[in-house]
Amino acid sequence: MPILSVLYVTVSMILCIAGCGALSLMPGTTIHQRCGWKAEDYFFTDPKVIALCHAIEASNLAEMDRLVKAGADVNAQGKGKMTPLLWAFPDNNLPRFKWLLEHGADPNVVVEDEFNTRQNIARGDSVTQLACESSFPGYFETVFDHGGAPNLRRAAAVGASSTPLHTVIQFGGGDRRERVKRLIELGGDMNALAVGATPVMTAVGWGGQYDLAIMMLEAGADHRAYEESQIQRLIHRVVREERRLNSATLEQKAKFHELVKWLEDHGESYAEAKKDRDRWDSWSRTTGEFKEKMDAEIAERKAREKAAAEPQPK
After folding, report:
1. Residue 172 falls within a domain, yes or no?
2. Structural domain of 163
3. Is the pTM above the cut of 0.85?
4. Fewest 10 Å CB contacts: which of 9, 227, 280, 291?
């Protein structure tokens, strides 16, 4: 994906998470009003939580504290699994959001509705995943300071099965490098597959973020892991990046060559991977040739690997 496309996607996602897409640019009203969020519609059986949501909208921390002490549940789940924490997420208001997390709110609840946000929040999302995308200062850090699960899978149709590492690499607001570093420290799985790729593969293919790929490799990511289709390893994706270099920045080019050197220093061959790609690209996909030959090649590789792993006779 070209650099400008990545920037466009990132900016679009930031606007979405900031509150119902372009609606967030309208002055004078809260996101709750723009999206038609009424606490009575979501927590209709719990007047204490309804009152808590009103206090959240007013950013009245003292009233929030009084209500929670009086029994309002910070982890109440309303219609669609709406929670007080998600109610506090919009409008770039860290104090109220952080207060709920500090008082035990769970950011890992997976929601079952889009809450009239035009799919900017989707079924299968969670506050943890939304914080990975958000450009609101402090949201990501606060979530992962207070129980955000570093391997929580996204169940939404867009980005299905993505872990926080995948989400930060693709759509993360703020400093992606620092966010990736934090997730690694928390035990984020650098070899997890999502949409067919590991986080390292995603970093390479999503805008040429070679610096993030190198960071994860140096932290122990498996450079010889195969993508979900069992066809490519990381080195094959790196070979394909040659086409991006003409429009890459000088820093990107330097990081690309650093990445290639790292892989070759750890046993990979750029030249052999390029031959693999040229061979695969020569096979017809319309006649069935590609599938037939690729299936045979994968089966042969697995047989070799199995034989190599078997104990050798003494």
Report:
1. yes
2. 3-189
3. yes
4. 291
